[in-house]
Design a protein that fits this description.
The protein is of the alpha/beta class. The chain contains three helices and eight strands, in the order ββββββααβαβ.
């Protein structure tokens, strides 16, 4: 299933984040609360031109990543100081994903005005978890 870039938000950081809105896989992902799940059978393939979120069975998404918005790390000043803004776009996000060995994927009914991860996971409407790199 194709998810348009307008329904995604890529956030850089030590653990990069992919926010999804209105995704067809929403109901197949576990609820995210205080503990971040590692859903069995799910993985992510981050690339400059596309990002694939692959789940068990027929569950999965393809995102045209080249057109998707990428935000810098909002809450990790030590990370920002060490990485500057070189590679601040999708190439930087993909590098973050490689370094972290995966991505925190959060599926939401709609994208938030501000990507406050603590608030998003506390609200009880986020689904997803830490997805390892496809390999």
């Amino acid at each position: 299933m194709l998810l348009t870039p307008e329904n995604t938000l890529f956030v850089r950081g030590r653990t990069p984040v992919l926010l999804l809105a209105g995704a067809s896989v929403h109901g197949a992902l576990p609820v995210v609360g205080r503990e971040i799940p590692r859903p069995a059978g799910w993985s992510v393939l981050p690339r400059l031109t596309m990002c694939v979120v692959d789940g068990p069975g027929e569950h999965g998404l393809v995102i045209p990543a080249a057109a998707a918005p990428v935000l810098p790390s909002a809450d990790d000043s030590a990370y920002r100081e060490g990485h500057g803004d070189g590679g601040a776009g999708m190439d930087g996000w993909c590098a973050d994903a490689e370094a972290a060995g995966g991505v925190l994927v959060l599926s939401l009914p709609q994208l938030p005005a501000e990507p406050d991860l603590a608030a998003l996971t506390a609200a009880g409407s986020a689904r997803g978890g830490f997805l390892p790199l496809a390999g």
